[in-house]
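Many introductory courses stop at the sequence. We go one step further.
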Amino acid sequence: MKKNIIFLAVVVLVVGGAFAFMRSQYRGQQQETVNTNASEHLIRDNHATIGDPSAKVTLVEFLDPECEACAAVDPTVKGLVKEFEGKVYFVVRYMPLHKNSFLAASALEEAKSSGKYFQALSTLFYSQPEWASHQAPRPELIAVILKKLDIDIMNIKPSDLIEKHRAHIERDQADGKALGVMGTPTLFINGQIVDDMSYQSLKARIQGLL
């Protein structure tokens, strides 16, 4: 447990700074490539959500379960959703960019049916050092980790699991590209790409829309 905590702390410091720099470099290009009909690409049916769709603020995150930066940003996003409960509608979309991203996203889709999607998402983020190591990834541990949450995919072949959810994940991927998403995490607040993902900046932006 201590190893995981140290790992995520380092990721927050290192990846956070690097990601902020990357955002500043790509901001102009992203804004130019966002589709004029962005709303049709931002939100579709059957995605994991928190909150009321009629809320004044809609927060959409394109993420990759295998992405270290996504794991680092997760506490910030979840904290804001909790702080602005009832005022923010949060939607999760996928942008698979790593070798085992499709498998992890497919496993999360299975968790959705048990009502444990966000618990499973946070668990996979936290346990990235176990299953998503760059040096020696062990994707077979995804099923083992989720079994601890009573999400049982142990008897489903990874290839079958991926095929079951491929269309859903690939649609997210296509929508992300249409919106100019170039990396993860990418956040949209009321249809606008967010550059600064610090808690205070996001909080101020949300407050300004309420």
